[in-house]
Specification:
There is one protein chain. Strand 6 (164-169) and strand 7 (172-180) form a beta hairpin. The chain has a domain at 53-161 and 219-352: Vaccinia Virus protein VP39 (Rossmann fold, 3-Layer(aba) Sandwich). Strands 2, 3, 4, 5, 10, 14, 15 and 16 form an 8-stranded mixed beta sheet that branches. It is an alpha/beta fold. Helices cover 35% and strands 23% of the residues. The chain contains 13 helices and 16 strands.
Length: 372
């Protein structure tokens, strides 16, 4: 990757306004109206920078479709349901989910599809993938989706929301920033003064972190928005992302380009920037507004509980030996706990209106263990 057009703009901002907080740098790199990573390209698949679960196998989207059907039944099978996807990639997951839902005509007829997508390149891909569908609308924000009973799917959505990083010094917690070094390059630094009383907001585990430790946090606005929606209008949200089950210190800010890790301060706007999702913080924020929380559990546990092994076996029975091998490889990728698998790194969290006391794959599974 070469120097990006955004680099000079970021340097100018730092020179005029001082060191830039990590959250602001991440926001500019991903969402700058002209040079932002997520507004200018299709980052998915072999030709892109990373691969998401729906691109690994059709089973992922199909099972989420059937999961949505089970929630719809628990909601009392309303005759009108908004199925909302946040950050829907190429539309692959929604296409697979809807194919599975066609076996339930009463639900399929009730659906109004809402795709929340800011990337014009991906939006075009989604329109092509989902062409011919009735009752489908695109939005820039979930705020623009009309009210009504809803099921919300958010796969790898929260990890790209801008993250604050705090560094512990002897005199308190300082906001981590981006500054320009003597060689004219971007580098990490810390705000000169600590953030007042920041430690009072921290979980006990983080308060005991050593000098030099990094703690990451995101504002609660997005999760509270989803939780308030399902609390007031009936329904549930399913959040799938990589992250940790409990709040803890650790630097997870990273950049990925061409399926490999790269320097997040190099070529801003040309690599995907992410940070792990704190599922304990999401759960706490959703409960604070009165929604019911289900899980979180690992992706492997969730997919196995809602039937991925059975679905894989059914597909393999009808497939050629080559295709059957592909299905077996995809199953391992989605559920395995090893380094090459997504099964334990990715977590699944359900949020619902309070009367939904149990949700498939989450509520009837024991809470996942401590750790990440």
């Amino acid at each position: 990757m070469t120097d990006s057009p955004l680099l000079n703009e970021i340097k100018s901002l730092i020179k005029s306004s001082g060191p830039m907080p990590v959250w602001r740098y991440m926001e500019l790199c991903l969402m700058h109206p002209r040079y932002g990573y997520y507004v200018s390209r299709d980052p998915l698949g072999r030709e892109g920078d990373f691969t998401t679960a729906p691109e690994v196998s059709q089973m992922f989207g199909e099972l989420l479709g059937l999961w949505s059907a089970s929630v719809w039944k628990q909601m009392g099978s309303p005759q009108f349901l908004r199925l909302i996807e946040l950050g829907p990639g190429r539309g692959t997951m929604m296409a697979d989910a809807l194919r599975a839902l066609r076996v339930l005509p009463p639900l399929y007829q009730a659906l109004h599809i809402h795709m929340v997508e800011v990337n014009p390149v991906l939006r075009e891909r989604q329109m092509a993938t989902l062409s011919g569908l009735r009752n489908i609308t695109w939005h820039n924000s979930v705020d623009d989706v009309p009210e009504g009973p809803s099921i919300i799917l958010a796969n790898e959505y929260f990890d790209v929301l801008p993250v604050h990083q705090m560094v512990r010094h002897e005199n308190g917690w300082h906001e981590r920033v981006i500054e320009i070094n003597g060689n004219g390059k971007l580098e990490f630094g810390a705000a000169a003064e600590p953030t007042p009383r920041f430690e009072m907001l921290l979980p006990p585990l983080v308060r005991a972190a050593p000098i030099g430790a990094v703690f990451e946090w995101r504002p609660d606005a997005e999760i509270m928005k989803l939780a308030t929606r399902v609390r007031d209008q009936d329904g549930a949200a399913l959040i799938i992302d990589y992250g940790h089950l409990r709040s803890d210190a650790g630097d997870t800010f990273q950049a990925i380009a061409r399926h490999s890790f790269t320097d997040p301060l190099k070529a801003p706007g040309q690599a995907d920037l992410t940070a792990h999702v704190d599922f304990q913080a999401l759960s706490r924020a959703a409960e604070d507004v009165g929604a019911r929380v289900h899980g979180p559990v690992t992706q492997g546990d969730f997919l196995k509980r809602i039937g991925i092994d059975t679905r894989a076996a059914a597909l393999m029975q009808k497939a050629t030996p080559e295709i059957a091998t592909d299905i077996s490889v995809a199953l391992k990728r989605l559920t395995d706990t090893g380094r090459s698998g997504m099964g334990s790194m990715f977590k699944v969290l359900g949020i619902s209106e309070p009367r939904l006391t149990a949700i498939a794959g989450l509520s009837d599974l024991e809470q996942a263990g401590e750790g990440s």
